[in-house]
């Protein structure tokens, strides 16, 4: 069975505490639950403000799951792991 590569995009605005925390939390969850099966793109809206419109970003930080569809968004520093995993529809990997 081919595992789908998850495409995640994290929108931040500079190196704020919330943005740094969100990125650290997201990387940890991805390594725990999607190891080797994800692509993470971080977009700093201070450098690329025009990119906010494409994903309709209204708050920072925002995580967007592009693939698998449907697109899902989570706003905040991603510190609540259960909420993030449920929000992204990540199921724990079955231990073999």
Describe the structure.
By secondary structure, the protein is of the alpha+beta class. The chain has a single domain, classed as Glutaredoxin, CATH 3.40.30. It is built from 3 helices and 4 strands; from the N terminus they run βαβαββα. A 4-stranded mixed β-sheet has the order 2-1-3-4, with helices on one face. A hairpin with a 4-residue loop joins strand 3 and strand 4. The longest helix has 17 residues. It is globular, with a radius of gyration of 13 Å. The model has no long low-confidence stretch (mean pLDDT 90).
Spell out the key features of this protein.
96 residues, alpha+beta, Glutaredoxin, four-stranded mixed sheet
Concise synopsis of the structure shown:
With 96 residues, this protein is α+β, with helices and mostly antiparallel strands. It is 30% helix and 25% strand.
What global shape is seen?
globular
Unreliable spans are none
The run of helices and strands is EHEHEEH
Q: Helical proportion?
A: 25-40%
**Spatial sequence of strands, sheet with the most strands:** 2-1-3-4
Distance between the termini: 15 Å
Number of domains: 1
DSSP helix count? 3
> Rounded to an integer, what's the Rg over CA atoms?
13 Å
- CATH homology superfamily name: Glutaredoxin
Strand fraction band? 25-35%
Nearest-integer average pLDDT: 90
Please outline the helices and strands.
Blueprint: E1 6-12, H1 17-33, E2 38-44, H2 51-54, E3 62-67, E4 72-75, H3 81-88
Parallel strand pairs: 1-2
Antiparallel strand pairs: 1-3, 3-4
């Amino acid at each position: 069975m081919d595992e789908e590569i998850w495409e995640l995009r994290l929108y931040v605005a500079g190196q704020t505490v919330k943005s740094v925390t969100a990125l650290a939390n997201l990387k940890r969850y991805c390594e725990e639950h999607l190891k080797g099966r994800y692509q993470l793109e971080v977009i700093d809206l201070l450098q690329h403000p025009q990119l906010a419109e494409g994903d309709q970003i209204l708050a920072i930080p925002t995580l967007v799951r592009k693939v698998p569809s449907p697109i899902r968004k989570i706003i905040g520093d991603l510190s609540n792991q259960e909420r993030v995993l449920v929000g992204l529809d990540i199921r724990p990997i079955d231990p073999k």
